[in-house]
UniProtKB/TrEMBL annotation:
Stored InterPro entries: 5'-Nucleotdase_C, 5'-Nucleotdase_C_sf, 5'-Nucleotdase_CS, 5_nucleotidase/apyrase, Calcineurin-like_PHP, Metallo-depent_PP-like
Protein name: 5'-nucleotidase, C-terminal domain protein
Gene Ontology terms describing biological process: nucleotide catabolic process
GO cellular component, one term: outer membrane-bounded periplasmic space
Family indicated by similarity: Belongs to the 5'-nucleotidase family.
Domain named 5'-Nucleotidase C-terminal: residues: 452-610
Lineage, uppermost ranks: Bacteria, Bacillati, Mycoplasmatota, Mycoplasmoidales, Metamycoplasmataceae
Length: 672
């Protein structure tokens, strides 16, 4: 076992931290859990001229990337064919055989990269430049497991861990929103995925807005368990005046760390958290902290990094995002205005951003979208004296590249952590979540125009109504101190295809509830003007017979009319029939649409709600937890008669569960 040198904030003396990663003379990191003892020996590397070393490394990378890209395209085509012919077992077998057949070749090519990277670092010892290889992700959102479903394509932390086995690199970093996102990961509030990231040897992770989803105290406990080798970082989150005197104005998390890498070169790594956390996570979760201005906080922190720590290369892990409505909270603004930051690894907005430095910017900026859809692999050549980046190349590796390169590798520690969580998750799923008193019907088949469809795709259902009310109620209660959030201004919207099962009367286990909402979506809300609200409703009603058909909260009413016959029949909403709490929509008034993150990314054709598109007048207003938990909590509340007394309703969207058993409850959307 070697030792890796890390300098932490406030500690000028290096701290030696034991790590299972091999640290060779050039101080690169190798993930090598699955190596034999012979494999673990450092190859004999002759110190060669810098020019030759650069050419050899460049050629090795190009050879690997060419082959991997070609094979990934072939694998993608196979998956498309399988999706079209799901019962064709021969296609599935061919896919498995294809991936296995490339293992030896790709391992050999990556081994060549490892050898030439080591040689390059040795050759750079007395030069003015240093080559850094940085892997990065962001917004993993609980994606622990590989998932190549039609709409997913997530490599998963398990397969990323395998990809990184036996790979030489300098740093592995995340721009935040790691711990929250899917039921499996959420079941222990992000504890396992944090330990998985630590086991994968992430060097640092930014605090994202969803790191607050389970409360600040919980996040501090997670950080305590990982911070010796993998701290969560934020330079702009500070305690406010509501806390004890000894905490006021202090930072809950380390603002930065210093990593000493190859040839003694030092890198400063800083975290920045979006100030919109106060609205994009539940407000109660951040009630004890302030989110200071990102650029101002960065300038203060970088000044300390450069002056006190004598470091002249700085990476900012920014959980800010692009296309934000408030310019000062946008990562493009940060890259342009944050002084002496060299590289911005971004997150939050879930965009794929190829690495680039715009004219006038201080730093290079990149982002890997979200959900482990891409793994960023960056090669930087940095001037040791000035800290300036002299050249940069990047590969954003998708699920197909990751799957191919990971095949045949193992990380048993990561695998076992996930397996243990799955076992506990199975036990939890067998527990009763709530007692149901109404038959909730949504996926029963109904004949329309000679073809059978799920009820929830051709008309309003009581389950669709219940789910839409549940999410609307969540936001109204979270914003209870703001009178603008009421039945006149807030609506709930669920896509009919997002609800996947009926619910029978009786005890309902968490596993059964998960069958209703299996996708791991989270509750999200946007502010829009009346015209956009109307466009969303018009779109929802026009999508009869598809999963995009809208299920709305109980304050929304409209009529749908059809034209044509059979399969060519088209549907449209009668615009004049649309009412919100009995009132017409006012084009210029502000409304809140509460829905799920899938629709707010433009899913199911709801492009008018895609808040990341800055050309649209749509503002993110709220981000909460898992839809599954919202549904369960609402069911527990509404099934308790004591919460209502003699009334059927006690908030605009909280109705006694018995209300949903009445036929009149689903008369708001009329198909003519």
């Amino acid at each position: 076992m070697r030792f890796k040198k890390i300098m932490l904030l406030g500690s000028i003396t290096p701290i030696l931290i034991a790590t299972s990663a091999i640290t060779i003379a050039c101080n690169t990191t190798t993930n090598n859990t699955g190596k034999t003892e012979e494999d673990k020996k450092d190859p004999v590397v002759n110190k060669e001229s810098l020019e030759v070393a650069r050419v050899n490394y460049k050629n090795a990378m190009e050879a690997y990337n060419t082959k991997l890209s070609t094979y990934a395209k072939e694998l993608k085509a196979m998956k498309v064919a399988i999706d079209k012919n799901k019962k064709d077992e021969a296609l599935k077998t061919s896919r498995k055989e294809f991936v296995a057949s490339k293992e030896s070749e790709l391992k050999e090519l990556r081994s060549k990269i490892n050898t030439t990277f080591k040689a390059l670092n040795l050759a750079e010892k007395d030069s003015d430049t240093q080559t850094l290889k940085i892997f990065h992700t962001n917004d993993e959102h609980g994606r622990l497991k590989f998932d190549d479903g039609k709409y997913n394509n997530y490599s998963g932390m398990d397969t990323l861990a395998e990809f990184l086995e036996n790979v030489e690199y300098t740093l592995l970093l995340s721009a935040g929103d790691l711990i929250q996102g899917l039921p499996l990961s959420d079941s222990d509030k992000g504890k396992t995925i944090s330990l998985v990231a630590k086991e994968m040897k992430y060097d640092a992770i930014a605090i994202g807005n969803h790191e607050f989803d389970f409360g600040l105290d919980h996040m501090l406990e997670l950080n305590k368990a990982t911070s010796s080798t993998m701290p969560f970082l934020s330079a702009n989150v500070v305690y406010n005046d509501k806390v004890s005197e000894d905490k006021k104005g202090k930072l809950p998390f380390k603002p930065y760390i210093i990593k000493e890498v190859a040839n003694g070169f030092k890198v400063g790594i800083m975290g920045i958290t979006t100030p919109d956390t106060t609205i994009t996570s539940h407000p109660n979760n951040s009630k004890d902290v302030l989110f200071n201005d990102p650029v101002e906080s960065s300038n203060k922190t970088v000044s300390e990094i450069r002056d006190k720590e004598k470091v002249n290369f700085v990476i900012a892990l920014t959980h800010l995002g692009i296309g934000r409505n408030i310019e000062k909270w946008d990562s493009n603004y940060f890259a342009k205005n944050a002084l002496d930051v060299d590289l911005v690894l971004d997150g939050h907005s879930h965009n794929k951003v190829d690495i680039a430095k715009k004219d006038g910017d201080q730093a290079y900026l990149t982002q890997t979208e979200a959900y482990t859809q891409y793994l960023g692999e960056i090669d930087l050549v940095v001037n040791k004296k000035t800290g300036k980046i002299e050249s940069v190349t990047q590969s954003l590796r998708d699920i197909n590249e990751v799957e191919l390169a990971a095949f045949g590798k193992k990380n048993d520690n990561v695998k076992n952590l996930i397996k243990d969580l799955e076992t506990k998750f199975g036990v939890e799923n067998n527990k009763v979540a709530f007692k149901n008193t109404v038959v909730f019907d949504h996926v029963t088949l109904q004949n329309v125009d000679g073809t059978e469809f799920w009820k929830g795709r051709v008309g309003q259902t009581n389950l669709g109504l219940f789910a839409a009310n549940a999410i609307a109620d969540e936001v109204v209660k979270a914003k209870k101190d703001d009178s603008k959030y009421n039945a006149d201004t807030v609506i709930g919207l669920m896509n009919g295809g997002g609800l996947r099962a009926n619910i029978a009367i009786g005890d309902v286990t968490r596993g059964q509830a998960l069958g209703v909402l299996p996708f791991g979506n989270r509750i999200s809300a946007v502010k829009v003007e009346g015209d956009t609200l109307k466009a969303a409703i018009m779109h929802a009603g026009s999508k009869m017979k598809s999963g995009a058909f809208g299920q709305f909260s109980s304050n929304v009413k409209f009529n749908i009319v059809g034209s044509g016959e059979g399969k060519t029949k088209k549907y449209a909403v009668e615009e004049a029939s649309i009412k919100i709490n009995g009132k017409d929509i006012v084009a210029t008034n502000e409304y809140t649409i509460v829905t799920n993150d899938f629709l707010l990314a433009g899913g199911d054709g709801y492009v008018m709600l895609k808040y990341a598109d800055k050309s649209k007048n749509v503002t993110l207003d709220y981000e909460g937890g898992d839809l599954l938990d919202v549904l369960i909590n609402h069911a527990v509340y509404t099934s308790n008669e004591a919460n209502f007394g003699d009334s059927k309703t006690n908030t605009p969207f909280a109705h006694k569960m018995s209300f949903y058993g009445e036929a009149s409850s689903i008369k708001n959307i009329v198909v003519k």
